[in-house]
Write a structure and sequence with these properties.
about 45% helix; 5 strands; five-stranded parallel beta sheet
């Protein structure tokens, strides 16, 4: 995959500026978001080839965002950034991981990054890496086999519609 446009999702301004300087020297077109909402707006507005997810509230949120982006934008490569090798190992994700502080190794990872959809998609189309996501997926599968009404609650953009579809499609009501 030839990457020319990169979206950086980084709340830490110092880290973001360092990576942008590296990306500019490599002639990448760059968009920067400091939160998920801004990132989704940019992904819908511009053609983005790759996303680098840096500092958010915690690693689980970063992995959740990577899952969300890869589901909605299947042709976008996703890289996760972590503060040290131990954190990268703990993430245990199908995404390429880069270490912080950002350096030229990050650029090398970006050049070789290829998150093909076939590598990221689960058989049922739902990716659940974090334990809480796996538990939610199991609960949704159990609910789908019952004739009950379900209320899905959550903040905007967390995937309620996708889970509603996930529950509805295998149910007898479909």
């Amino acid at each position: 995959m030839q990457i020319s446009t990169v979206l950086l999702i980084e709340a830490n301004l110092n880290d973001g500026e360092k990576l942008i300087k590296l990306l500019v020297t490599e002639a990448y077109s760059i968009h920067w978001a400091v939160n998920e909402h801004d990132a989704n707006s940019l992904l819908k507005t511009y053609h983005i080839d790759a996303v680098i997810i840096g500092s958010l509230k915690d690693e689980a949120q970063s992995v959740w965002l990577a899952d969300s982006i890869s589901r909605k934008f299947t042709d976008v490569a996703v890289l996760l950034a972590a503060a040290c090798n131990d954190e990268v190992d703990k993430l245990n994700t199908p995404y390429a991981c880069v270490n912080k502080p950002y350096d030229t190794d990050c650029i090398a990872s970006l050049k070789t990054c290829n998150n093909a959809p076939s590598e990221k998609k689960a058989d049922d189309g739902v990716i659940a890496i974090a334990k809480a996501s796996r538990d939610l997926k199991k609960m949704a599968q159990r609910v789908a086999s019952c004739d009950v009404s379900v209320i899905l609650m959550g903040a905007s953009g967390v995937g309620k519609e996708e889970f509603a579809q996930y529950i509805h499609e295998p149910s007898r009501r479909a």
